[in-house]
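Q: Here's a chain of 256 amino acids. Please give me its 3D structure as tokens.
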Amino acid sequence: MNQVYVFLIRNDVWIYVLAGIGLFWYLGQLIRARQSLRQAMFGLERERGQIQQRRALTFTLILILVIILVTYVNVFVAPTLPSDLLKPPTPTPDIFVTPLSSPTPIGTEESTDPQLAPTVTLVESELIPPETIQESSEEPTDEPTPPAVIGDCQPDATITSPPSGAQVEGRFTVFGTAAGGNALEYNLDIWGESTEDQWLPALEERRPSPILDGILGSVDLIGSQDGIYTIRLRVFDADDEVIGQCAIQVDLKSAG
């Protein structure tokens, strides 16, 4: 049953879109069938209109139940599922994309060390926004962009998935912990290519804590420019003071 829940959670957007299109279509069929029944003068026309009306009504109710089911799973079931169950699977290396070592020329002695395929390591200093590396020589504005130290996380404020430096697509789920003795609420912010050098909220509003190694929220970057984005978690106490903070960076690559 958990696999069904995971499928609904990971594909909720497409299910909503397809159900909405189907609902629009069958509502139109239902309206046309009722109009046909009102105008029917013969028994055969009336019987045909009743069949069309029952079919349209049946599919309309089914699609409404699907929408209700997906919403229920996302709101009530998803927070109770184990965090490991919803984490994205580890990507399998593509042998057609991973570069291989150059062949050894004839007559050249081969090295005894095994040749491994080169890997790409995201250097932390290259991902950190310029504002966090050095102070700007320009005069400060009224609302300067606050710094975020990548990887400076505490046990009570940490992001476990996606890992810092991971490649993501437009919409993904953030897992982690937002807790602490005085923790009251938490929030997720975004800084990157499409945020015009400022922090933008990733959630519609702050959410109550504690969250212990669970779902912190979903980040929607669909339509945003590809590039490096910083995801920041902040935990607040009852006095609206930040008592914990964690920041990671992800590499947005649009699908296709």
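Q: Can you summarize the key feature?
A: Residues 147-252 form a domain with the Immunoglobulin-like fold (CATH 2.60.40.2550).
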